[in-house]
Amino acid sequence: MSGEAQSHKYQPFISYTGADITLVDLTDANFTEASGSSDKSVRLGSPHDGRSLQTLNRHNNGVLSVAFSEDGQILASGSEDNSICLWSLCSRPSLRTLDGHERGTWSVAFSHDGRMLASGGGDNSVRLWSLEDGRSLRTLYGHIDWVMSVAFSPAGQMLASSSCNDSVRLWSPHDGRSLQPPDRHADSALSVAFSPDGQTLASGNYDKSVRLWASHDGRLLRTLSGHTDSVLSVAFSPDSQTLASGGSDNSVRLWALQSGRSLRTLSGHTDSVRAVAFSPDGNTLASASYDNSVRLWAPENGECLAVLGSTEGRIYSVAFAPSGGFICGGGEAGRLQIWDLQTGQTALWIYNFGEEWLMLMPDGRFDVSSPEALRYLRYTEIGTFNSYRAEDLAKEFHSPAAVKELLAKMQK
After folding, report:
1. Over the stretch 114-147, which tens digit does the pLDDT of each residue have?
2. Residue 395 burial (CB < 10 Å; 0-12/13-18/19+)?
3. Other C-beta atoms within 10 Å of 175: how many?
4. Burial class for 87, CB neighbours closer than 10 Å (0-12, 13-18, 19+)
5. What is the DSSP letter of 398?
6. In the prediction, which pLDDT does 8 show?
7. Strand partners, 97
């Protein structure tokens, strides 16, 4: 059921009219344009003739966080609809959904041994999950507000969490014990990260500061000042020598860990920077912003290397695939978008419709969990008003092998 996709003949688009599902905007060349409106709908139109194709209602389940497992075989996403999706990217793609949080899943993180997933929610809790069977292992209580960020230490002996109107907390992930919190923490920590060497814990804070602690005893090492508004995200370089921070002042800042010196400020975003992440080799820094874009930077000189596929809606999260050649973003639009860094173009969109999933490539080729998911995918013939069901073109566009080959490239 696969073949060479005739992308010059057809444009794929998503057609869904039910409530409480957020869908993709296909904004790259040859694809449907999307525009947002105040009634929480997305209107799809043809970029060639401007005619309206479909209105997608109530996109209120944005993707708040994304993370790859260290081997790249699992992609996790946390959503405003409270759920966590675990996408298996090896062999036959599959989807497992974890439910438990209320008021959104704001952060997800894999343990380095690949056995556990941690999540932070709007219900003030931290949850630990078994990746083997999806079982909830334990729920950690102690925060008094939304848990915005979670991070495992490299050795896996500690789990850090930060809260919107509360402190940084440390936990033992193996038994759920609360450990000694860092000394002189900020009143409101919005993000948290461990250095890859395990020596330092960093937090980005509402008071515009970045704080660094010694991981082994919680001793405050230094406070980094420079942002002019809240610090929403922090990330360490792979060699543990540089820290990146993104803030509500629309900037990304780079800091030298040993001295605390500000190395440079990266400007270009026009709205808050919600997430930052280093590539596995440390040569590229990604920043995701509420201005609907992901920017790629060269950390050594601050050059902006690329602005990736502006999407309809804020981007809340970003993560590099372990291979380093791909990056995944999630945001207000509710689907996952994966870019190929070699070309700077979208490589794949991933949607979930309840228990069903659909993976769509830019040339129209796709894979689905079952035939039922095809009811959301349609094709328009370029230059005409003809619209076709995906079932009618499945022989041409259904290509599990092509999707599998692409997913394999993201893994180590």
Report:
1. 999 999 999 999 999 999 999 999 999 999 899 9
2. exposed
3. 7
4. buried
5. B
6. 58
7. 85
**Which run of H or E residues covers position 95?**
strand 94-98
Per-residue pLDDT tens digits for 12-55: 988 753 322 232 333 233 333 333 333 333 233 333 333 333 32
Q: For residues 242 and 284, is the Cβ–Cβ distance under 8 A?
A: no
Give the CA distances from residue 382 to residues 71, 186, 306, in Å, rounded to whole numbers and listed in that order.
40, 56, 29
Spell out the long-range contacts of 284-288 with Cβ–Cβ below 8 A and sequence spacing 24 or more.
284/320, 284/341, 285/235, 285/244, 285/252, 285/254, 286/318, 286/320, 286/327, 287/244, 287/246, 287/252, 287/318, 288/315, 288/316, 288/317, 288/318, 288/329, 288/331
CB neighbours (10 Å) of residue 2?
17
Q: Is 141 helix (H, G, I), strand (E, B) or coil?
A: coil
What is the C-alpha separation between 362 and 32, in angstroms, rounded? 11
DSSP 391: G
What tokens were used for 308?
């990736």
Question: Cα–Cα distance between 189 and 242 in angstroms, integer?
Answer: 20
CA 371, CA 115: separation in Å to the nearest integer? 32
DSSP states along 100-126:
--SS-EEEEEE-TTSSEEEEEETTS-E
For residue 313, give both structure tokens. Answer: 């809606």
CA dist 306 → 39, 132, 295, 337 (Å): 32, 37, 6, 16
Q: Residue 367: what pLDDT?
A: 95
**Helix or strand holding residue 403 (H, E):** helix 400-409
User: CA 171 → CA 107, 125, 160, 205, 323, distances in Å?
Assistant: 16, 12, 6, 20, 30
